[in-house]
Amino acid sequence: MTSSxxxxxxxxxxxxxxxxxxxxxxxxxxxxxxxxxxxHTAEFIVERLRDAGIDxxxxxxxxxxxxxxxxxxxxxxxxxxxxxxxxxxxDALPVKETSGVDFASTVVDNDYPGGPFxxxxxxxxxxxTATVLAAAHVLASVRDRLPGDVMFIFQPAEEGAPVxxxxxxxxxxxxxxxxxxxxxxxxxxxxxxxxxxxxGVHVGNQYAASCMIxxxxxxxxxxxxxxxxxxxxxxxxxxxxxxxxxxxxQVPANDAITVSFGHVDDVGRFNIIGQTVTLWGTIRCLxxxxxxxxxxxxxxxxxxxxxxxxxSATVEYLQDVPPVVNTPEWVNRIRPVIDxxxxxxxxxxxxxxxxxxxVSVFVRDFGGAYFTYGVQDAQVSAKGLTPTPGGRGLASNxxxxxxxxxxxxxxxxxxxVHVAYAHLAESS
Length: 428
Ligand SMILES: [Zn+2]
Ligand SMILES: [Zn+2]
What we know:
eight-stranded mixed β-sheet; four-stranded antiparallel β-sheet
């Protein structure tokens, strides 16, 4: 079998499964589930994997995770066999969808901690999931000719498990998802507002290191009319938020970091100065080496600000996620494959971003790379990224109007299957 013959077999199988891919995507999109609650999604995934005749399917990993293995017919002995892993995250977000598509979500999760929440696939994980499912079908159709095995990773809780629960990529590793079968490469691409069919590549840190911040400021509850008889935690909370905006001046200016608070919890009332105010936020560091320093400085700020007011502050950092690191070696192996599949002109260099993605755990542990893939009506010109005139506009991930073009997903699928095959064929 020549490489051009297998390439055309992959492409023709991709075209054959494409209508199913779109139908699966629409189904997942209109049935979104929040992090660690992806029960229907996981069942749907298992059914589609069974339809593809995948050899080994394990579900219930780290909650709702699914890992499947397709055995290649031309695999050599166990020793040096390669295992190419394709990864999709499967969870949705607490966002009220306004994309306007006819398969838009109207789902509300009434039981989720902190809810009820409207739920939508506002990060495009429906595209990731449907496409990796389609990749399983495509690769299964040429299984006899695969010189190695392929793993399909369906990861829950990429957006972060509820506080107090574990979940996500690290939880899958901890749950021994890869103990018996260790991938020799993990590959994925996040759908983003780049022009349809464009792949964004960044050598180095594609996505930032991240952690969740929880700061509990403890005062002394008292009637609102007599603040001197208690300890008011509010000015402490306010000064911590203000002071956190200065932390960027305490790390090297070339290093991108952000400290943001998005949620404040209290138990007061208009005429009661409450006992505790809790601040929730996130730290992002494009260079993971800055994370400890930023955490230390924020802790120092919080504890000393509280002390200055006679209050106390307890600082916790939760849900640590390492940066997504695309090494030059892995990019040099994978990028030429993508160049061949969709044309060099559609593969562009992009800057690293302060978003996070816990695929970083897999890429760090097993090697591979994670790129971005354009699914929106956009164009790149001297003015940068702009909406295509007459198109649907630019809508960022997590926004209520985020959308992804269905037709963009055919090349997205082709890239997945070709990258997996190329990795296996490298060794043969
Ligand atoms: Zn997201
Ligand atoms: Zn995402």
